[in-house]
Design brief:
Layout lengths: L1 H15 L12 E7 L4 E10 L2 E10 L2 H14 L4 H15 L7 H4 L12 H19 L2 H13 L1
Antiparallel strand pairs: 1-2, 2-3
Length: 154
Amino acid sequence: MALEQLYQEVILDHYKNPRNKHDLPGAELSCSRNNPLCGDEITVYAHLDGGRVAEVSFRGSGCSISQASASMMTEAVMGLSTEDTGGLVRDFRGMMEGKVEPSEDRFGELVALTGVRKYPARIKCAVLAWDVIQAALSGDADAREVRGEAAQSL
Ligand code: ZN
């Protein structure tokens, strides 16, 4: 019970005081995705330097889980190599699916999001931002389209 409350406080704090929630002028990568089941929308912007995620930010709207997870994602991947980011996305998804042990050494405060696993419909909310950063880094079609829009608005 106490742990559950702590987890909820971590999530609420990120929801109310989102980290890195802003545009990122000059970001060469960006991607948007939504979760129509819940109405969540996330756009992730990233600036790479020397194979690392030098800067990452997000914009979005939706439920507290989706927005808190996006805020936590930006903190977790900031400064990581793109390879390590891919590994963390994979492990985070595994943790949310119950396939990877929620170790605080590996995941830090991200383990707070495992409280959501009791509500399977909300797992998509928690994973959305992670899908978006992965799509942005892989430079898929959607990401290119969004980059085009960003370039026009500059
Ligand atoms: Zn949601």
